[in-house]
Amino acid sequence: MKILVVDDEMPARKQIVALLGEYGKSNFIIEEANSGEAALNKLKNEDYDVVFLDIHLQDISGLDVAEKMVNNEVDAKIVFVTAYDEYALKAFEYAAVDYLLKPIDERRFEKTLLHLMQACEKQSEAQQQNPLSAVEKLLIEHFKEEQRKKKLTLERDERLYVIDLEDILYIETEEGNTKVITTKGNFTSTLTLSEWEEKLPDPPFFRTHRSFLVNLEEVKEVLFWFNNALQLKIEEDSNRLIPVSRNNTKSFKERMNIIG
């Protein structure tokens, strides 16, 4: 078990190291950090099983260190150590395993350490039995989600059609109706344009106007209109032009890499 002890006071660090030596196992790997930044640097470059983390550090709060650990998905169990019990509830927001008050009670420390060792052993056994199971599940779910995002089913004339997202040219609202214009025909949808905007990936779909959601990969031509607005030609064999509102023109130009 690899352990990081974080405290800006050397005596406090040495006490925890000594208790780990007394109640722990001889194969423990113990490292120290005398500040929050030093701890974050170590956590960035090395993997730890457990972090004993003082809340009151001179540079940044131990709670801030814990927040960054959580945000960066650092897979280490956190045990907060502090002289103040007012932070107990806050500490457990960061999935802390335990909370030790200074001066540290040895029986309390022994109980915490036993819990940590049991948790790490169970985790290690699970990984040994099927080391790739968690990764495989994530990859499978990711693959399914990506595949799901690439297709959708639309209804027309009491029949269901499976449509590739890349076949959608644009979606528009007109008099309260939502129309999905695709290379395989046009469909009417009960979803609002805002719901379609949330459902479809960005890029390539972009809300050019309050009434239009466009597949930018299908834009064939960009035409200048009055008041610095733009119009888009999507279907080469159609005279239909889709507006880009002035509010969305700047963002549209950036996405289409239009210079000038």
Quick description:
The chain has 2 domains: 2-131, Rossmann fold (3-Layer(aba) Sandwich); 146-255, LytTr DNA-binding domain (OB fold (Dihydrolipoamide Acetyltransferase, E2P)), CATH 2.40.50.1020. Helices cover 37% and strands 29% of the residues. It has 8 helices and 15 strands.
Query: What about the largest sheet?
Result: 5 strands, parallel
Helix content: 25-40%
The proportion of strand residues reads 25-35%
CATH topology of the largest domain: Rossmann fold
Note the run of SSEs as H and E. EHEHEHEHEHHEEEEEHEEEEEH
Number of helices: 8
**Bulk shape:** elongated
Strand order of the largest sheet: 2-1-3-4-5
| Average of pLDDT | 84
Q: CATH superfamily name of the largest domain?
A: Response regulator
The CATH architecture of the largest domain can be given as: 3-Layer(aba) Sandwich
State Rg.
Answer: 29 Å
Terminal Cα span? 59 Å
Number of domains: 2
Structural class: alpha/beta
Broad CATH class of the largest domain? Alpha Beta
Organism: Tindallia magadiensis
GO molecular function, one term: phosphorelay response regulator activity
Protein name: Stage 0 sporulation protein A homolog
Keywords: Phosphoprotein
